[in-house]
Specification:
Blueprint (H helix, E strand, L loop, with lengths): L7 H10 L7 E2 H7 L5 H11 L8 E2 L10 H11 L3 E3 L6 E3 L1 H4 L5
Parallel strand pairs: 1-2
Antiparallel strand pairs: 3-4
Helix pairs in contact: 2-3
The structure holds a DNA duplex (13 and 13 nucleotides).
DNA sequence: GTCGTGACAGTAG
DNA sequence: ACTACTGCCACGA
């Protein structure tokens, strides 16, 4: 049920923009949501157009935020109350996908 | 049409 | 926890 009328870029931005606060989606989930498997393609779009979408709501399958903006994303997560799980020494964190994963229908 | 690149995913060790 | 490898897909040159 993909949308061949929408460009890959437009579809990605639409899905990411539809993620509510306190929720996140993995790159693979976003790709699947638009009927594609281009998890990497999603990253490419985010890298270029991410400035205009809540990019921090898109994380990797492991629950880690973008490799280049983890510190930046943490501020957004704190502000939105996104469920996070910290390591024992609180040095690193990851998103609790079990609770924060947003599933588009 | 081919190649290199990438804010990825999954498996193996 | 880590690195290394392969598979996948979109995009620009």
């Amino acid at each position: 049920m993909p949308q061949p009328n929408e460009d890959f870029v437009g579809a990605v931005l639409e899905v990411v923009a539809a993620i509510p606060e306190g929720r996140v989606m993995s790159y693979g989930d976003v790709a699947a949501a638009i009927g594609s498997r281009a998890a990497r393609g999603v990253g490419q779009v985010m890298a270029y157009y991410g400035s205009e979408v809540p990019w921090w709501r898109v994380v990797r399958a492991s629950g880690h935020p973008p490799q280049c903006h983890e510190g930046r994303a943490l501020e957004f997560y704190r502000a939105e109350g996104t469920p996070l799980v910290w390591s024992r020494d609180r040095s690193v964190f990851r998103v609790d996908l079990a609770h924060a994963r947003h599933q588009p229908d």
